[in-house]
Amino acid sequence: MRIVLSALLSLMLAVAPTAPAAATEADPVETRLVQTIDGYVRNRGFNGVVLVANADGVIVHQARGQSSLELGTALDPDAVFRIGSLTKPLTAVLVLSLVQDGRLRLDGSLGEYLPELYADTPASAVTVEQLLAHTSGLKDLPSNYYDPFWQTTARQTFTPDAFASAWIPPELSSAPGRMRYNNNGFYLLGMIVERVTGTPYADALRDRVLVPAGMMHSGVYDPHTVVPDLASGYARSDLGVMDRPMTIDPTVSYAAAGAFSTAQDLLAFSRALSGDRLLPADLKARMFTQDADEYGLGWGVERWPTTGGDRMAVQTHTGSIPGYQSLFVRADDGTVVVILNNFWQGATTVEMGRALFAVVHGAPAPAPKRLLGDLLTPIAARDDVDAMEAAYRAAPTGGPEAYDVSEGALNTLGYSLMRKGFREAAIRVFEWNVAANPRSANVHDSLGEAYLGAGRRDDARRSYETALRLDPSSTSARAALAGL
Predict the structure, then answer these.
(1) Which burial class, exposed, middle or buried, applies to 130 when counting CB atoms under 10 A from its CB (0-12, 13-18, 19+)?
(2) 469 and 361 share one domain
(3) Which domain holds residue 115?
(4) pLDDT of 186-224, one tens digit each?
(5) Ramachandran class of 218: left when φ > 0, alpha when ψ lies in -120 to 50, beta otherwise
(6) Are 208 and 334 members of one domain?
(7) Between 20 and 30 A from 41 (CA), which of 95, 374, 407, 480?
(8) Which of 319, 352, 367 is the last residue of a domain?
(9) In terms of domains, do 236 and 298 share one?
(10) CB-hemisphere CA count at 13 Å for 48?
Protein backbone atom coordinates (compact mmCIF):
# COMPACT_ATOMS: atom_id res chain seq x y z
CA MET A 1 0.00 0.00 0.00
CA ARG A 2 1.49 3.31 -1.01
CA ILE A 3 2.77 5.67 1.68
CA VAL A 4 3.19 9.20 0.29
CA LEU A 5 6.10 11.35 1.40
CA SER A 6 4.09 14.06 3.13
CA ALA A 7 2.46 11.54 5.44
CA LEU A 8 5.35 9.11 5.83
CA LEU A 9 6.76 10.46 9.07
CA SER A 10 3.36 10.81 10.69
CA LEU A 11 2.62 7.20 9.81
CA MET A 12 5.93 6.03 11.22
CA LEU A 13 5.12 7.85 14.44
CA ALA A 14 1.75 6.12 14.57
CA VAL A 15 3.28 2.64 14.49
CA ALA A 16 3.82 1.88 18.16
CA PRO A 17 6.50 -0.53 19.30
CA THR A 18 5.72 -3.19 21.84
CA ALA A 19 5.84 -2.16 25.48
CA PRO A 20 9.45 -1.92 26.67
CA ALA A 21 10.83 -4.36 29.16
CA ALA A 22 12.09 -2.99 32.45
CA ALA A 23 15.80 -2.18 32.71
CA THR A 24 18.02 -3.21 35.58
CA GLU A 25 18.79 -0.76 38.36
CA ALA A 26 22.49 -1.20 37.58
CA ASP A 27 21.97 0.86 34.40
CA PRO A 28 20.79 4.37 35.35
CA VAL A 29 18.64 6.18 32.83
CA GLU A 30 21.39 8.58 31.75
CA THR A 31 23.71 5.67 30.94
CA ARG A 32 21.03 3.91 28.92
CA LEU A 33 20.17 7.10 27.02
CA VAL A 34 23.82 7.60 26.06
CA GLN A 35 24.07 3.94 25.02
CA THR A 36 21.01 4.44 22.82
CA ILE A 37 22.52 7.48 21.14
CA ASP A 38 25.79 5.59 20.65
CA GLY A 39 23.93 2.73 18.97
CA TYR A 40 22.32 5.05 16.43
CA VAL A 41 25.62 6.77 15.76
CA ARG A 42 27.34 3.42 15.21
CA ASN A 43 24.72 1.64 13.07
CA ARG A 44 22.84 4.54 11.48
CA GLY A 45 25.48 7.28 11.24
CA PHE A 46 23.28 9.61 13.31
CA ASN A 47 24.43 13.23 13.10
CA GLY A 48 22.67 15.77 15.28
CA VAL A 49 21.68 17.01 18.72
CA VAL A 50 19.66 15.09 21.31
CA LEU A 51 17.97 16.49 24.40
CA VAL A 52 16.00 14.37 26.87
CA ALA A 53 14.45 15.87 29.99
CA ASN A 54 11.94 14.92 32.66
CA ALA A 55 10.01 16.90 35.24
CA ASP A 56 13.18 17.28 37.32
CA GLY A 57 15.34 18.74 34.53
CA VAL A 58 17.61 17.84 31.64
CA ILE A 59 18.95 14.27 31.72
CA VAL A 60 20.97 14.24 28.48
CA HIS A 61 21.87 17.05 26.08
CA GLN A 62 24.51 15.94 23.60
CA ALA A 63 25.71 16.58 20.06
CA ARG A 64 27.17 13.97 17.75
CA GLY A 65 28.81 14.47 14.39
CA GLN A 66 29.56 17.56 12.36
CA SER A 67 28.04 20.96 11.86
CA SER A 68 29.94 21.64 8.63
CA LEU A 69 31.43 18.94 6.44
CA GLU A 70 33.25 21.60 4.45
CA LEU A 71 34.99 23.04 7.51
CA GLY A 72 35.13 19.84 9.55
CA THR A 73 33.54 21.55 12.56
CA ALA A 74 31.88 19.48 15.26
CA LEU A 75 28.27 20.04 16.27
CA ASP A 76 27.63 21.90 19.50
CA PRO A 77 24.65 20.96 21.72
CA ASP A 78 23.39 24.54 21.34
CA ALA A 79 23.55 24.50 17.52
CA VAL A 80 20.65 25.98 15.55
CA PHE A 81 18.70 23.84 13.08
CA ARG A 82 15.95 24.50 10.59
CA ILE A 83 13.01 22.52 11.96
CA GLY A 84 10.65 22.11 9.00
CA SER A 85 7.13 21.15 10.02
CA LEU A 86 7.92 21.58 13.70
CA THR A 87 6.90 25.10 12.71
CA LYS A 88 3.28 23.92 12.72
CA PRO A 89 2.93 23.62 16.53
CA LEU A 90 4.42 27.11 16.83
CA THR A 91 1.93 28.44 14.27
CA ALA A 92 -0.90 26.66 16.07
CA VAL A 93 -0.04 28.33 19.38
CA LEU A 94 0.24 31.70 17.62
CA VAL A 95 -3.20 31.30 16.01
CA LEU A 96 -4.83 30.19 19.26
CA SER A 97 -3.28 33.15 21.11
CA LEU A 98 -5.13 35.39 18.65
CA VAL A 99 -8.29 33.39 19.28
CA GLN A 100 -7.80 34.03 23.01
CA ASP A 101 -7.54 37.77 22.35
CA GLY A 102 -10.69 37.77 20.24
CA ARG A 103 -8.88 38.69 17.03
CA LEU A 104 -9.55 35.34 15.36
CA ARG A 105 -12.31 32.75 15.61
CA LEU A 106 -11.88 29.02 15.14
CA ASP A 107 -15.06 29.03 13.07
CA GLY A 108 -13.88 32.01 11.03
CA SER A 109 -13.53 31.16 7.36
CA LEU A 110 -11.19 31.71 4.43
CA GLY A 111 -13.90 33.72 2.73
CA GLU A 112 -13.99 36.02 5.75
CA TYR A 113 -10.24 36.44 6.38
CA LEU A 114 -8.87 36.18 2.82
CA PRO A 115 -11.84 37.33 0.70
CA GLU A 116 -9.81 38.48 -2.32
CA LEU A 117 -8.60 34.89 -2.78
CA TYR A 118 -11.46 32.71 -1.54
CA ALA A 119 -14.77 34.58 -1.23
CA ASP A 120 -17.55 32.93 -3.26
CA THR A 121 -15.41 29.88 -4.04
CA PRO A 122 -15.69 26.23 -2.91
CA ALA A 123 -12.98 26.97 -0.32
CA SER A 124 -14.70 30.00 1.19
CA ALA A 125 -16.34 28.05 4.03
CA VAL A 126 -13.12 26.32 5.17
CA THR A 127 -12.53 27.33 8.79
CA VAL A 128 -9.47 28.19 10.82
CA GLU A 129 -10.08 25.09 12.92
CA GLN A 130 -10.11 22.90 9.81
CA LEU A 131 -6.84 24.42 8.65
CA LEU A 132 -5.26 23.65 12.03
CA ALA A 133 -6.60 20.09 12.04
CA HIS A 134 -5.66 19.26 8.41
CA THR A 135 -9.32 18.63 7.62
CA SER A 136 -9.87 21.47 5.13
CA GLY A 137 -9.95 19.37 1.94
CA LEU A 138 -7.72 21.92 0.20
CA LYS A 139 -5.38 20.79 -2.54
CA ASP A 140 -1.85 20.40 -1.19
CA LEU A 141 1.58 20.62 -2.74
CA PRO A 142 3.09 17.51 -4.40
CA SER A 143 4.12 14.96 -1.80
CA ASN A 144 7.16 13.65 -3.66
CA TYR A 145 10.30 15.80 -3.66
CA TYR A 146 11.13 14.37 -7.10
CA ASP A 147 8.09 16.20 -8.50
CA PRO A 148 9.01 19.04 -10.91
CA PHE A 149 7.38 21.54 -8.52
CA TRP A 150 10.12 20.98 -5.94
CA GLN A 151 12.86 20.87 -8.55
CA THR A 152 11.94 24.20 -10.18
CA THR A 153 9.07 26.30 -8.79
CA ALA A 154 10.00 25.80 -5.13
CA ARG A 155 13.36 27.47 -5.76
CA GLN A 156 11.66 30.78 -6.57
CA THR A 157 10.85 33.57 -4.10
CA PHE A 158 7.19 34.43 -3.52
CA THR A 159 5.15 36.89 -1.54
CA PRO A 160 2.49 35.02 0.44
CA ASP A 161 -0.29 36.44 -1.76
CA ALA A 162 1.51 35.43 -4.94
CA PHE A 163 2.18 31.92 -3.69
CA ALA A 164 -1.40 31.37 -2.55
CA SER A 165 -2.76 32.70 -5.82
CA ALA A 166 -0.58 30.33 -7.83
CA TRP A 167 -0.43 27.21 -5.67
CA ILE A 168 -3.37 27.14 -3.22
CA PRO A 169 -6.39 27.03 -5.51
CA PRO A 170 -9.90 27.74 -4.21
CA GLU A 171 -11.17 24.33 -5.31
CA LEU A 172 -11.29 21.44 -2.84
CA SER A 173 -9.69 18.05 -3.39
CA SER A 174 -12.11 16.41 -0.98
CA ALA A 175 -14.99 17.38 1.26
CA PRO A 176 -13.87 19.06 4.50
CA GLY A 177 -13.77 16.83 7.56
CA ARG A 178 -11.34 14.10 6.55
CA MET A 179 -7.82 14.38 7.98
CA ARG A 180 -5.21 14.72 5.21
CA TYR A 181 -1.88 16.28 6.20
CA ASN A 182 -1.79 19.62 4.40
CA ASN A 183 1.03 22.16 4.25
CA ASN A 184 -1.06 24.63 2.28
CA GLY A 185 -3.49 24.95 5.15
CA PHE A 186 -0.76 26.17 7.48
CA TYR A 187 0.56 28.50 4.80
CA LEU A 188 -2.85 30.17 4.76
CA LEU A 189 -2.85 30.39 8.56
CA GLY A 190 0.30 32.51 8.31
CA MET A 191 -1.48 34.82 5.88
CA ILE A 192 -4.49 35.07 8.19
CA VAL A 193 -2.19 35.98 11.08
CA GLU A 194 -0.72 38.79 8.99
CA ARG A 195 -4.18 40.12 8.06
CA VAL A 196 -5.52 40.29 11.61
CA THR A 197 -2.31 41.58 13.25
CA GLY A 198 -1.08 43.90 10.51
CA THR A 199 2.45 42.53 11.02
CA PRO A 200 4.55 39.96 9.16
CA TYR A 201 4.11 36.37 10.30
CA ALA A 202 7.73 36.20 11.53
CA ASP A 203 7.23 39.25 13.75
CA ALA A 204 3.92 38.00 15.14
CA LEU A 205 5.49 34.62 15.94
CA ARG A 206 8.40 36.29 17.70
CA ASP A 207 6.27 38.66 19.76
CA ARG A 208 3.47 36.29 20.72
CA VAL A 209 5.23 32.91 21.04
CA LEU A 210 9.02 32.91 20.88
CA VAL A 211 9.79 35.76 23.28
CA PRO A 212 7.11 34.83 25.87
CA ALA A 213 8.39 31.23 25.83
CA GLY A 214 12.02 32.31 26.25
CA MET A 215 13.02 30.96 22.82
CA MET A 216 15.80 33.47 22.23
CA HIS A 217 17.60 31.50 19.50
CA SER A 218 14.57 30.75 17.32
CA GLY A 219 12.89 32.53 14.44
CA VAL A 220 11.73 32.26 10.84
CA TYR A 221 14.54 31.47 8.42
CA ASP A 222 15.60 34.12 5.92
CA PRO A 223 18.53 33.20 3.64
CA HIS A 224 19.67 36.81 3.55
CA THR A 225 20.09 36.99 7.33
CA VAL A 226 23.03 35.45 9.20
CA VAL A 227 21.81 32.93 11.79
CA PRO A 228 24.58 32.40 14.37
CA ASP A 229 25.49 28.75 15.06
CA LEU A 230 23.27 27.42 12.26
CA ALA A 231 24.27 23.84 11.38
CA SER A 232 24.64 23.18 7.67
CA GLY A 233 22.16 20.71 6.23
CA TYR A 234 23.12 17.73 4.08
CA ALA A 235 21.52 14.75 2.33
CA ARG A 236 22.84 11.38 1.22
CA SER A 237 22.86 10.98 -2.56
CA ASP A 238 21.65 7.87 -4.35
CA LEU A 239 25.31 6.88 -4.67
CA GLY A 240 25.72 7.02 -0.91
CA VAL A 241 27.78 10.20 -0.53
CA MET A 242 26.83 13.26 1.50
CA ASP A 243 25.73 16.19 -0.70
CA ARG A 244 24.27 19.60 -0.23
CA PRO A 245 20.48 19.18 -0.27
CA MET A 246 18.06 20.43 -2.89
CA THR A 247 17.06 24.07 -2.54
CA ILE A 248 13.63 25.16 -1.37
CA ASP A 249 13.09 28.89 -1.01
CA PRO A 250 11.97 29.76 2.54
CA THR A 251 9.00 31.72 1.18
CA VAL A 252 7.56 28.37 0.07
CA SER A 253 7.90 27.02 3.64
CA TYR A 254 6.61 30.09 5.51
CA ALA A 255 4.17 29.33 8.36
CA ALA A 256 4.11 25.62 7.54
CA ALA A 257 7.83 24.78 7.74
CA GLY A 258 9.94 27.93 7.89
CA ALA A 259 11.23 28.13 11.47
CA PHE A 260 14.62 27.45 13.03
CA SER A 261 15.35 26.62 16.67
CA THR A 262 17.58 24.85 19.19
CA ALA A 263 17.00 21.90 21.49
CA GLN A 264 17.01 24.16 24.57
CA ASP A 265 14.53 26.55 22.97
CA LEU A 266 12.15 23.69 22.20
CA LEU A 267 12.43 22.52 25.80
CA ALA A 268 11.57 26.08 26.86
CA PHE A 269 8.56 25.96 24.50
CA SER A 270 7.34 22.78 26.19
CA ARG A 271 7.80 24.24 29.67
CA ALA A 272 5.94 27.41 28.68
CA LEU A 273 3.04 25.29 27.42
CA SER A 274 2.90 23.57 30.80
CA GLY A 275 2.07 26.91 32.40
CA ASP A 276 -0.15 29.74 31.19
CA ARG A 277 2.42 31.99 29.52
CA LEU A 278 1.28 31.05 26.02
CA LEU A 279 -2.29 29.77 26.20
CA PRO A 280 -5.03 29.30 28.80
CA ALA A 281 -6.04 25.81 29.85
CA ASP A 282 -9.20 25.62 27.74
CA LEU A 283 -7.42 26.40 24.46
CA LYS A 284 -4.56 24.04 25.28
CA ALA A 285 -7.10 21.33 25.97
CA ARG A 286 -8.71 21.97 22.58
CA MET A 287 -5.30 22.02 20.85
CA PHE A 288 -4.33 18.69 22.40
CA THR A 289 -7.68 16.93 21.88
CA GLN A 290 -7.06 13.76 19.89
CA ASP A 291 -9.23 12.97 16.89
CA ALA A 292 -9.57 9.64 15.09
CA ASP A 293 -6.32 10.25 13.19
CA GLU A 294 -4.21 10.97 16.30
CA TYR A 295 -4.00 14.66 15.55
CA GLY A 296 -5.22 17.72 17.40
CA LEU A 297 -4.77 21.32 16.24
CA GLY A 298 -1.23 21.56 14.85
CA TRP A 299 0.02 18.60 16.92
CA GLY A 300 0.17 14.85 16.77
CA VAL A 301 -1.72 13.66 19.86
CA GLU A 302 -0.93 10.05 20.61
CA ARG A 303 -0.46 7.48 23.37
CA TRP A 304 3.02 5.97 23.52
CA PRO A 305 3.89 2.74 25.37
CA THR A 306 5.84 2.82 28.61
CA THR A 307 6.51 -0.15 30.91
CA GLY A 308 4.17 -2.96 31.81
CA GLY A 309 1.87 -2.37 28.83
CA ASP A 310 0.84 1.10 29.99
CA ARG A 311 0.51 3.97 27.52
CA MET A 312 1.08 7.67 28.11
CA ALA A 313 -0.43 10.68 26.36
CA VAL A 314 2.10 12.62 24.29
CA GLN A 315 2.01 15.67 22.05
CA THR A 316 4.45 15.39 19.18
CA HIS A 317 5.48 16.56 15.74
CA THR A 318 8.14 15.81 13.18
CA GLY A 319 9.84 18.28 10.91
CA SER A 320 11.48 17.63 7.57
CA ILE A 321 13.02 20.07 5.13
CA PRO A 322 15.86 19.16 2.75
CA GLY A 323 19.00 18.81 4.85
CA TYR A 324 17.23 18.71 8.21
CA GLN A 325 15.01 16.36 10.20
CA SER A 326 13.55 16.98 13.63
CA LEU A 327 11.35 15.37 16.25
CA PHE A 328 9.72 16.94 19.30
CA VAL A 329 7.86 14.92 21.94
CA ARG A 330 6.34 16.12 25.20
CA ALA A 331 4.47 13.86 27.60
CA ASP A 332 1.99 14.39 30.42
CA ASP A 333 4.59 13.36 33.02
CA GLY A 334 6.99 16.14 31.97
CA THR A 335 9.17 14.04 29.65
CA VAL A 336 10.56 15.95 26.66
CA VAL A 337 12.52 14.41 23.79
CA VAL A 338 14.07 16.64 21.13
CA ILE A 339 16.12 15.39 18.19
CA LEU A 340 17.58 17.82 15.65
CA ASN A 341 19.38 16.25 12.71
CA ASN A 342 21.30 17.92 9.87
CA PHE A 343 21.84 14.80 7.74
CA TRP A 344 18.11 14.54 6.80
CA GLN A 345 17.75 11.11 8.44
CA GLY A 346 13.99 10.82 8.67
CA ALA A 347 13.38 7.20 9.63
CA THR A 348 16.36 7.15 11.96
CA THR A 349 15.29 10.31 13.75
CA VAL A 350 11.75 9.07 14.37
CA GLU A 351 12.81 5.59 15.47
CA MET A 352 15.48 7.03 17.74
CA GLY A 353 12.95 9.35 19.40
CA ARG A 354 10.66 6.46 20.24
CA ALA A 355 13.60 4.49 21.60
CA LEU A 356 14.73 7.34 23.85
CA PHE A 357 11.18 7.83 25.15
CA ALA A 358 11.00 4.13 26.00
CA VAL A 359 14.37 4.24 27.77
CA VAL A 360 13.28 7.17 29.93
CA HIS A 361 10.33 5.06 31.02
CA GLY A 362 12.35 2.02 32.02
CA ALA A 363 13.36 0.17 28.86
CA PRO A 364 16.91 -1.08 28.31
CA ALA A 365 19.03 0.58 25.63
CA PRO A 366 18.02 -0.90 22.25
CA ALA A 367 20.35 -2.30 19.61
CA PRO A 368 19.29 -0.50 16.41
CA LYS A 369 19.79 -2.40 13.17
CA ARG A 370 21.36 -0.96 10.04
CA LEU A 371 19.20 0.26 7.17
CA LEU A 372 19.09 -1.75 3.95
CA GLY A 373 18.67 1.45 1.97
CA ASP A 374 22.13 2.64 3.00
CA LEU A 375 23.60 -0.58 1.63
CA LEU A 376 21.46 -1.29 -1.42
CA THR A 377 20.43 2.07 -2.90
CA PRO A 378 23.99 2.97 -4.03
CA ILE A 379 24.30 -0.47 -5.65
CA ALA A 380 20.98 -0.03 -7.45
CA ALA A 381 22.12 3.39 -8.67
CA ARG A 382 25.62 2.29 -9.69
CA ASP A 383 25.25 -1.33 -10.82
CA ASP A 384 22.13 -3.44 -11.39
CA VAL A 385 19.45 -5.39 -9.55
CA ASP A 386 21.43 -8.62 -9.60
CA ALA A 387 24.34 -6.94 -7.82
CA MET A 388 21.84 -5.45 -5.38
CA GLU A 389 20.37 -8.88 -4.68
CA ALA A 390 23.82 -10.39 -4.12
CA ALA A 391 24.52 -7.72 -1.50
CA TYR A 392 21.13 -8.33 0.09
CA ARG A 393 21.75 -12.07 0.38
CA ALA A 394 25.17 -11.45 1.92
CA ALA A 395 24.01 -8.81 4.43
CA PRO A 396 24.23 -9.98 8.07
CA THR A 397 20.88 -10.36 9.80
CA GLY A 398 22.24 -11.10 13.26
CA GLY A 399 24.85 -9.67 15.59
CA PRO A 400 25.87 -6.07 16.25
CA GLU A 401 26.08 -5.19 12.53
CA ALA A 402 22.74 -6.73 11.51
CA TYR A 403 20.55 -5.13 8.87
CA ASP A 404 16.82 -4.66 9.33
CA VAL A 405 15.11 -7.07 6.91
CA SER A 406 11.65 -6.87 8.46
CA GLU A 407 8.49 -6.53 6.39
CA GLY A 408 8.27 -2.83 7.16
CA ALA A 409 11.91 -2.20 6.31
CA LEU A 410 11.61 -3.91 2.93
CA ASN A 411 8.37 -2.08 2.13
CA THR A 412 9.95 1.27 2.99
CA LEU A 413 12.98 0.51 0.83
CA GLY A 414 10.79 -0.54 -2.10
CA TYR A 415 8.86 2.73 -2.06
CA SER A 416 12.06 4.73 -1.65
CA LEU A 417 13.47 3.10 -4.78
CA MET A 418 10.21 3.76 -6.64
CA ARG A 419 10.33 7.47 -5.76
CA LYS A 420 13.91 7.64 -7.00
CA GLY A 421 12.93 6.08 -10.32
CA PHE A 422 14.61 2.67 -9.79
CA ARG A 423 11.56 0.64 -10.85
CA GLU A 424 13.18 -2.72 -11.45
CA ALA A 425 15.08 -2.51 -8.17
CA ALA A 426 11.85 -1.64 -6.35
CA ILE A 427 10.06 -4.62 -7.91
CA ARG A 428 12.87 -6.92 -6.81
CA VAL A 429 12.66 -5.66 -3.22
CA PHE A 430 8.88 -6.08 -3.11
CA GLU A 431 9.31 -9.61 -4.49
CA TRP A 432 11.71 -10.40 -1.64
CA ASN A 433 9.09 -9.12 0.78
CA VAL A 434 6.36 -11.29 -0.75
CA ALA A 435 8.62 -14.33 -0.52
CA ALA A 436 9.40 -13.61 3.14
CA ASN A 437 5.85 -12.58 4.13
CA PRO A 438 3.43 -14.42 1.80
CA ARG A 439 0.44 -14.01 4.15
CA SER A 440 0.68 -10.20 4.29
CA ALA A 441 -1.89 -8.48 2.10
CA ASN A 442 0.06 -5.24 2.27
CA VAL A 443 3.21 -6.62 0.62
CA HIS A 444 1.19 -8.08 -2.28
CA ASP A 445 -0.55 -4.70 -2.63
CA SER A 446 2.81 -2.93 -2.76
CA LEU A 447 4.16 -5.35 -5.34
CA GLY A 448 1.03 -4.82 -7.43
CA GLU A 449 1.63 -1.08 -7.41
CA ALA A 450 5.23 -1.56 -8.51
CA TYR A 451 4.20 -3.93 -11.32
CA LEU A 452 1.52 -1.49 -12.46
CA GLY A 453 3.99 1.39 -12.53
CA ALA A 454 6.24 -0.73 -14.77
CA GLY A 455 3.38 -1.55 -17.14
CA ARG A 456 3.15 -5.20 -16.06
CA ARG A 457 -0.63 -5.22 -15.83
CA ASP A 458 -1.17 -8.99 -15.66
CA ASP A 459 1.37 -9.33 -12.85
CA ALA A 460 -0.22 -6.36 -11.10
CA ARG A 461 -3.67 -7.94 -11.36
CA ARG A 462 -2.45 -11.18 -9.82
CA SER A 463 -0.79 -9.35 -6.95
CA TYR A 464 -3.85 -7.25 -6.21
CA GLU A 465 -6.11 -10.34 -6.38
CA THR A 466 -3.89 -12.03 -3.81
CA ALA A 467 -3.95 -8.94 -1.59
CA LEU A 468 -7.74 -8.82 -1.75
CA ARG A 469 -8.05 -12.53 -1.02
CA LEU A 470 -5.86 -12.11 2.08
CA ASP A 471 -7.66 -8.94 3.15
CA PRO A 472 -11.17 -8.61 1.67
CA SER A 473 -11.50 -5.16 3.27
CA SER A 474 -8.57 -3.71 1.29
CA THR A 475 -9.95 -0.64 -0.47
CA SER A 476 -6.68 0.02 -2.28
CA ALA A 477 -6.53 -3.45 -3.85
CA ARG A 478 -10.21 -3.27 -4.78
CA ALA A 479 -9.78 0.15 -6.40
CA ALA A 480 -6.68 -0.96 -8.28
CA LEU A 481 -8.46 -4.01 -9.67
CA ALA A 482 -11.41 -1.88 -10.73
CA GLY A 483 -8.99 0.37 -12.59
CA LEU A 484 -7.39 -2.61 -14.25
Answers:
(1) buried
(2) no
(3) 1-367
(4) 999 999 999 999 999 999 999 999 999 999 999 999 999
(5) beta
(6) yes
(7) 407
(8) 367
(9) yes
(10) 33
